[in-house]
Specification:
Oligomer: single chain
Distance between the termini: 23 Å
Mean pLDDT: 94
Low-confidence stretches: none
CATH architecture: 3-Layer(aba) Sandwich
Strand content: under 5%
Number of helices: 7
Helix content: 40-55%
Shape: globular
Order of helices and strands: HHHEHEHHH
Strand order of the largest sheet: 1-2
Largest sheet: 2 strands, parallel
Radius of gyration: 15 Å
CATH topology: Rossmann fold
Length: 169
Amino acid sequence: MAAAILGQRLAQRGITATVRSAGWLAAGDPVPPEVGQALSHLQVPSPAGLSRLVDPDEVAGADLILAMERQHVRKVAALDPDAWPKTFTFKELVRRGSSHGARRDGEVMADWLARLHAERTSTSMMGAAREDDVDDPFGRRQRAYVRTVEELDDLAGRLVELGWPSAPA
């Protein structure tokens, strides 16, 4: 859901970006129907295809890795320690971007992320925290999916404004 929403938000701003989704549990599962129903409230197409596992090569080549939970950030950092400075939970990145400032004109993404990463410690992602974790609606009622989609839409909008403030509207 996050990839579909963020991809659409970026495209609406005229920003060309490759946004992929991957997880840790299983590959080859279809998108649950609740996802498409929840995304339809935003007129975001349901993701096509099947679930994919996190790929170490994609992690190494990514400019930014957004996780839904702190435990996912820890897993990415364990998989590839060099990915730690560019891996954030969605909420954490928006929170840090809001407090440290949007990406500056001419500032490359890697430099902005380094600025936001500067005061993080290796223990900052320990445990779970509402301030950083997006609630996973899997297996719950449709309303939980809708709430998560609404939260992700808010986060995506805020991230696009912070990360691409001078992009054409």
